[in-house]
Every structure is written in structure tokens, then in C-alpha cells.
Write a structure and sequence with these properties.
By secondary structure, this protein is an alpha+beta fold. The protein contains 5 helices and 5 strands, in the order E-E-E-E-E-H-H-H-H-H. It has 2 domains: 4-42, no CATH class; 46-157, no CATH class. It has helices spanning 52-65, 70-88, 92-106, 110-128, 149-157, and strands spanning 4-8, 13-16, 19-22, 27-31, 37-39. The chain has a 3-stranded antiparallel sheet with strand order 3-2-5, with helices on one face. Helix 1 packs antiparallel against helix 2 (70-88), helix 1 (52-65) runs antiparallel to helix 4 (110-128) and helix 3 (92-106) packs antiparallel against helix 4.
Length: 160
Amino acid sequence: MSNLVLQLRQGDMMIVNGAAIRFRNRTRIELTSRARFLFGKQIMLPEHADTPARRIYFALQSAYVGTDEERPRALDEGRGLIAEFMAATTSALAREILERALAAAESDDCYEAVRLARRIVRHEDAVLGRRSDDADAPQSNPEPSGAPPAARRLDQEHED
């Protein structure tokens, strides 16, 4: 495996293998082994999962970067949310993308599943006429049940 170098700004957040990290200053890090991680605008906080597509994104995110205990529960939640969305949508393309996202998540390629879920968030925003300056980090409110502690910790630590 080749190493991955990331440059992060002060205040940037990252979740690595279920652990929430906030960078207090600008830094470069190098990942030298395989890890489950998301950073910056890829991370959705629980209160931003306020639409069906965003709840799917959050569940797949949790299946990817949650703790060992959180991941199976999040994948189950994602399956249910995807089934509901697929039953409700009239978009064949959205159903196809969701099928691919679920297949990726079930084969433990959750980063790809999250990437595909971002496309569904953008699609939903377009259909709803919702402004989406950054579909990777959607903004809004109510927290879904079973929100992973790593995402909650990130939000709570931001108050420092």
C-alpha cells in the first residue's frame, strides 16, 4: 500500500477508525497503513441528517467510520433507509446508484458507498429545490436515532 499524505487546516475534523480528531493547528499527516477515515466536509454531523438522502449518507458514513460496535447497526439502518428511498423515488438513476451504494457497503467498500450517497444527496437537493453549496457536508437539524458516538463527539468537542 502506498502512503497517503493529507494537509489539514486548523479546526478541521477527521474520524479515523471510529475516533474523532480535531486539528488545533495546520498540519500534514501521513497514513501509513489501511484505515477507515473521513475528514473535513466529508463528515456529516447527526443534526445534518434531516432528509431521507442525508439519513442514508449518515448511516453509510457510520457503517464506514463508526466503531466496531456501531458499524453493523449502521449498515442495517442504511439497508432499511435505502429500501424506503428506492420504494419512494421515481428516479431509475437514483435507484441504480443506491443499489450500487448498498452493494459496496455490504462488500465492505464503504468509502465508495459514501461517495455514491453524496450523489443521492445532491439529487435530492435538486429535486427539493434545496440550495446545496456543499453536498458533501449538508446543513440542517434533527438527529436520527442511533447516531454514532464518534460523530456526536466531534460536534461536542467543537464547542471548546
